[in-house]
Amino acid sequence: MEYKMSRSLRSNLITYGIVVLFFVVCEILIATHILSYSLQGQLVPICAYVCMAISLNLVVGISGELSLGHAGFMSIGAFSGVVAAALVGGVAGNEPAILVISMLVGGLLAGVMGFLISIPVMRLHGDYLAIVTLAFGEIIKNILNNLYVGMDESGLHFSMNSESSLHMSQAGKVLLAGPKGAVGVNTIASFIVGILLVLFCLFVALNLINSRSGRAILAVRDNRIAAEACGINSMKYRMMAFVVSAVLAGMAGALYGLNYSSFIPSKFDFNNSIMVLVFVVLGGIGNIRGGMIAAAVLTVLPEALRFLSTYRMLIYSVVLIAVMLISNNEQARMVLRRFKNHFKKSRKKKVAPQVAVAGAGAASAKEDGAND
Amino acid sequence: MQFLSTLINGLSLGSIYAVIALGYTMVYGIARMLNFAHGDIIMVGAYICFFMMGLFGLPPLLAVLISIVGCTLLGIVIERLAYKPLRNAPSLDVLITAIGVSYFLENGALLLFGSNPKVFKSVVPFGPLQIGSLTIKSTALVSIVVCAIVAVALTLFTQRGKMGKAMRAVSEDKGAAQLMGINVNKTISLTFAIGSGLAAVAGVLLCSSYPTLYYMTGSMPGIKAFIAAVIGGIGSIPGAFLGGLILGVIEMFARTYVSTKFTDAIVFGVLIIVLLVRPAGLLGKPVNEKV
Amino acid sequence: MTKEEKQVVSAPESQQSGIKARRVNTKMVPLPSTSIVPERDLGKEPILECRHLGIDFGGLHAVEDFDIAVGRTEIAGLIGPNGAGKTTIFNLLTKVYQPTRGTILLDGQDLNNMSVPKVNQSGIARTFQNIRLFSNLSVEDNVRIGLHNQVKCSMLNGIFRTPQFFKSEKAFHKRALELLDVFDMADLAQVSAGSLPYGAQRRLEIVRALATEPKLLLLDEPAAGMNPSETSDLMDSILKIRDEFQIAIMLIEHDMDLVMGICEGIAVLNYGKIIAKGTPEEIQNNPEVIEAYLGAQADASAEKEA
Q1: Which of B14, B20, B142, B284 lies 20 to 30 Å (CA to CA) from residue C92?
Q2: How many angstroms separate the CA atoms of C160 and A302, rounded?
């Protein structure tokens, strides 16, 4: 027990440490004017996408379900966050406080939506489930593309038709303008709050995994039938992972939205969902830290590769295919393993007993699956 | 009258979806992969046809044939280079690779042909058909006829042909098919080839009806056709036809009678409802895990 | 009865039959309804009672008229040739399959309309023929998952690490190690379950099932793939579990030494129907059973080899 606790605890502390280190390094680079202005502008989006990667990892890696519509939750968070910020902004003046409230609102709304969506979604399995999440992502985009929200002294006005049908007073301000998206946003998102959100997402995800509920989620992922035979309600725990993930995605969305003076619903389309999925897969499915790093690197990479202009997406696609081919190539894997072993040799002290004999027996057990 | 013309337009759009959906469904049935690059092969097919007709002034039929051959080869090459090495890889890795291929095709087209949409000249040489007060667009008619021909040909091929039987065997049980002496790799290649060839046909039909051609042309119809394949029961060839036609008709009716703005939401909503009632699609076989 | 007494009782028997019998020499008495139960369980309601249980797959009657009663502390055996429907019965009892006909009463409670997890919470735990461990997780975590409904801690308590969380984790840890101790596996607690040797995986599955605090434990071929000495240890363990936890155990097994050695009541299944019920002695001498296993012309002496 002590051994295990300390091992997972150490791993978690390293993950938190990386985030803090990243923050300190960036602050130093900003203070010394080494970080270019355009890269500075990427810091909040990096935080948002790191949170998205953590969020999606809960569904794809920990719960083992493929979600292809996660950008939908991000967009709910972004748009509701903008509205919330405008509402609260009139009352409170403190920017970080408004930001935090907006993120909470975004997370809450995305969570509610995630719960509603998960009721039908979790009745399905495998690829069918993935396709339905894709469909929900597109539906959310479609609705937000036609949603108009305005605010005047009498409160919020909603419409699904046009700006003019909002019927606002002279002083009214349009917040969401259908396909034009959020307009005139007060950009209050800051790097420090972004980092705090990343730490919060990590806290939620890592603590969830190492708890009774997390074990149940993992059990359902590994073997649904066995988990149910252990008295675990698989539906409940699949939904739990999905909803928690939606909440985190919503908070990330609010952070992301409040970083831009305007953004459109189509920003959060299928390709955006896929982009986050790529972070998760490249970082190693279920590996929270890996997903985080992949998200940070791949968010900043297009910006850093701007000099390649039109070629960069082409290069990106080739790299994507190449990474998948190499990581699934037996020879490449062997080389990688040898390298890893070499690296880890000094750290291996405690080898668990009886492990070496196991391989053959376990393998034959799987093949003996013939039924009665 | 509006009802009838909407129905015909819907069937026409549905026929195009059906032909695209076939590519998704056949590949899924045999390789258990969601080939997200399929939609972009449509775009490539349309571009080939466009340039054959525009630059070289070839007759439409010849241009279409060249486009089919080109896409078939493209499909085989993609399968050989990107998917074949991943035969035993985790399905998410294959999915990401397919998305990589999709990005590659889209951005390759963007680089080669620019971002300005091209106006695709219909390949159908005759004008609209007039029956009483009902006008049927020639492209609509051709789409439906082509879809019917493909349906008959493909059914004959899979039910009677030796390679077709091999395809069905591989999709049923790869291991057992191999033991029966079927060349699984060749069969999978063939499936990709047929799917891609059909994608070229669909691309030409699509652009004849909706003549804007640019690098993202295949993206949305690709996703919609994919949805159609799932509605019909992914892996089932008759299901792809059924799903495509249903989706096309629903989309047209939603656009005409309900709301042009929420057409997409309605289409995707239909998918969700169908899957809730039949979790494996209309004609799909539910798979029960053995305990 | 103490352990020594048990061995004394069974010693001469094992010499006679060539079977290492460890069975408590209980008298089995007929039950008014469907079956026989050990004399010591008389006067108490049977833990499991099935009446006319059956399921159809398509047109095939996979199981028909399965009537059985299992005493509260009985070790019952379910045997029969391959494809007789034994695992299907387990799947019916745990509601992995919904029965087409009949009722299942667990401790008097009707299991109709219950889901798989609900059945487990009502008191039936099982192991699987093709081992279903959470092989990526540690041995201890596997047991902790079995303890899921025994120790409570809500999601928010877990995420925000409240004192309730630490208390529950302590309880999880303590109970998991206690249970692993039943099979002397406590020192393997941190090993990943998938890397255990085959026999240990089967034992871990039993521990995990026990963790759910069942009243009835279903073991699907617990000795499959084990060598004779492992099987012999397993027999001791099964008896120990029954005595310590005071639960009923029903097992499917092809190893006749194990079945005849520890089962008190046995039901023989063929083509989805019970062809014989009774004590091991009765089953061994039942001509129908011998025929089902060996074909018509085989004589009784060959039965041991089955």
Answers
A1: B284
A2: 37
pLDDT in tens, C244-303: 999 999 999 999 999 999 999 999 999 999 999 999 999 999 988 888 877 655 454 444
Q: Chain B: give the shortest CA distance to residue C125, in Å.
A: 15
Closest by CA position to C71, among listed C26, C4, C19, C133: C26
Both tokens assigned to C240: 């120990």
Cα–Cα–Cα angle for A245, A249, A255, nearest 5°?
150
What ipTM was reported for this prediction? 0.90
Q: How far is C178 from chain A (nearest CA, A)?
A: 13
Q: What is the pLDDT of residues C136-164, one digit of tens each?
A: 999 999 999 999 999 999 999 999 999 99
d(C-alpha A309, C-alpha B111), whole Å:
11
Cβ distance of A232 and C148 shorter than 8 Å = yes
| Alpha-helical runs (H) found in chain B | 2-31, 38-54, 60-78, 91-113, 138-160, 162-172, 174-179, 184-209, 219-232, 237-253, 263-277
Q: What share of chain C is helix, strand, coil (3-state, %, to 5)?
A: 40, 20, 35
**Cα–Cα dist A73/A176, whole Å:** 17
Cross-strand bridge partners of residue C276: C268
CA separation for the pair A245, C159 (Å, rounded): 13
Gap between the Cα atoms of C55 and A344, Å rounded? 55
The residue in chain A having the minimum alpha-carbon distance to the alpha carbon of residue C171 is A212
Q: Which chains touch A (3 or more CB pairs under 8 A)?
A: B, C
Q: Count Cβ atoms within 10 A of the Cβ of residue A217 and give its class: 0-12 exposed, 13-18 middle, 19 or more buried.
A: buried
Judge whether A181 and A262 are in contact, CB under 8 Å: yes
DSSP tally for chain B: helices H, then strands E: 11, 4
| CA distances (Å), origin B71, targets A254, B46, B49 | 43, 10, 10
Q: Angle A126-144/A70-89 helices, nearest 10 degrees?
A: 30
> Residue with structure tokens 């969401």?
A176
Print burial letters for B131-144: b (CB count within 10 Å at least 16), e (below 16): eeeeebbbbbbbbb
Q: Using CA atoms, how far apart are residues C232 and A353, in angstroms rounded to an integer? A: 23
Q: What is the H or E stretch that residue C251 is in? A: strand C248-252
